[in-house]
Amino acid sequence: MIAAASRWIDRNILELARDFQLSYLPPLMVYMAAGISGLTGIVGTFFVKDYLGLSAAFLAALGFWAGIPWALKMPFGHLVDLLWRWKSLLVYFGAGVIAASLLIMVGLIGHREAMVAVMPAEVWYVLSVLLSPIGYVIQDTVADAMTVEAVPRVDERGMPIDEARLKLMHTTMQTLGRVAIISGGILVALINLYLFNGVESMPKEQVASIYEQVYLLALVIPAVSVLGVITASILRVRTRRRLLSQGMTLEQGASLTDRAAEPNSALRKVARVRLTSELAPDARHVLVGTALVVFVFRAVPGPGEGATWWMIDKLKFDQQFLSVLSLIGSALTLAGMFLFRRFMAERSIAYVVGFLTVAAFFLGLPIVSMYYGLHEWTAALTGGLVDARFIALVNTALESPLGQISMIPMLAWIANSAPANL
User: Fold this and answer.
1) Which helix (H) or strand (E) holds 372?
2) pLDDT per residue over 154-187, tens digit each?
3) Which of 14, 397, 335 is nearest to 172 (CA)?
4) Is 154 exposed, middle or buried (0-12, 13-18, 19+ CB in 10 A)?
C-alpha cells in the first residue's frame, strides 16, 4: 500500500517537478498573475452590491460586454503572431490597462468624492470593468504563445529533441501553467480569508477600507506579468550565448530562440487554410472535430453574478465564507490535476469533455435544489447540521477537482500539433 502510494506520488507529482525547466518560468509568471487576478472577485461583488446599487440584470448585461475581449481572443492570437518580436510591449500594455482598471476602483472606494466630481461612480465602475478583460486577454494570449516558445527544440548540446519527448514537455508545460494559475487562486483565497476574518461585526467604514487594501494589493498582478517578460528576455540571451559557445552561428542561434508559434485556439487554426493544408488528411479531420468539441464545450454559458447574489441574499453567505469556498475550490482543483493526470493523458479530448459534461449536470443539482428549499429540508432533518453552507462546502469539494481537467489536454494537444513552420 505504501509502495503503491509512493509510486503514484512519484509519477504524478515528483515527476512533474523533475521535468521543470528554467525556460518554463516566464509564462508561468504571467499565468500566476492571471491566478492572482481573482483577488478582487469577492470584493468587487460586495462593493457593487453595497455601494453602487447596480442591479444583477445590469451586471449581467455588463458581463456580456466585458466578455467580448475573451471572444476576440482568436484575432488577438493572430495579432500576437504578427507582433511577436514586440510581445513584451503587448504585456506592458496589458499590465498598464489592468493597473488603470484597479486604480479606478481604488479611487472609487477611497476617494469617491473626487472621482464623482469628474464622472458618476457607476460610469467609473463600468469603465473599470471594461478595461480589465482587455488587459487580461492580451496577457493571456501572449502567455499561451510563450508556452510554446518555452519548450526547447534542442537539448543542451544543440541536438534536436525527439517527438515523444517534445509531447511530454508540452504536457508538462501546460500542466505547470494550470498549477501556476490555481496556486495564484489559493494565495488569493488565503489573503481574502485573512482580511475578511470577523467581517460580519465590522463597521461599514472598516469594510470599505479592507476593500481598498485588496485593490491596492492587486496591483502586484501587472507587476508579476511584467517581471515574467523581463525574465524571458534574460533567459533568451543566456540560451543564445550558450548556443554560440557551442559553435552555432548567430543566425542558427536566433532561429532556435526566436520563434512565433501561438497555440491559443484550435478554432483559429481551422480558419487558416495554410495550416490545414500543412496537415495530413487524418490529422486535419481530427483537428476540425476536436475544434468543434472544444467550441461547444466552452460556449456553454455559466450562471453569472445572479447566482452569487442569490447566495448572498438568500443563503446569507458573507465575504469570509465565500473566501473559504474559493480556498477549498482552488486547493482541490490543484489536487484534482494530479489525481486525474493519467486520465487526461490517456483519454481523448472528446471523452474528457463528455465525462465533464455529465459530471457538471449532476454536480449542479445541489445548488439548483437549494433554490427550491433543499437546505431547509435537510437542516430540519439533521438538526441544523446539513444546512446551506454544509451543502455548498460538500458540493465545492466534489466539483473542484474537475475544474481544470478540460484545459490541460486541450492546450497540450494544440501546442504539440502546431506545425513548427507556421
Assistant:
1) none
2) 666 666 777 777 777 777 787 788 888 888 888 8
3) 14
4) middle
Judge contact between 165 and 403, C-beta under 8 A.
no
* Cβ contact 218:102 at 8 Å: yes
> Residues 391, 370: contact at Cβ < 8 Å?
yes
Contact (CB, 8 A) for 143 and 170: no
* Count of CB atoms situated within 10 Å of the CB of 235: 18
3-class SS of residue 102: helix
Q: Which residue has the higher pLDDT, 358 or 352?
A: 358
Residues 6+ apart with CB under 8 A from 204: 50
Could you give the CA distance from residue 47 to residue 343 in angstroms, rounded to a whole number?
41
State the cell numbers at 347.
Answer: 483519454
Buried b (16+ CB within 10 A) or exposed e, 238-268: ebbeebeeeebeeebbeebbeeebbbbbbbb
Backbone angles phi, psi at 67, to 5 degrees: -85, -10
- Determine the 3-state secondary structure of 304 from DSSP: coil
3-state helix, strand, coil in the chain (%, to 5): 80, 0, 20
User: Which of 233, 200, 192 lies closest to 43, judged by CA?
Assistant: 192
140 vs 183: CA distance, rounded Å: 16
Is there a contact between 219 and 33 (Cβ–Cβ < 8 Å)?
no
Closest C-alpha to 72, from 83, 60, 80, 61: 80
Angstrom distance (rounded) from CA 413 to CA 222: 29
Closest among 293, 305, 230 to 266, alpha carbons compared: 293
Provide CB contacts within 8 A for 61, sequence distance 6+.
Answer: none
* Tens of pLDDT, residues 261-297: 444 443 344 444 445 555 566 666 766 777 777 777 7
* Of 85 and 33, more confident: 33
Q: What is the pTM of this model?
A: 0.73
Give the integer Cα–Cα distance in Å for 224 and 219.
9
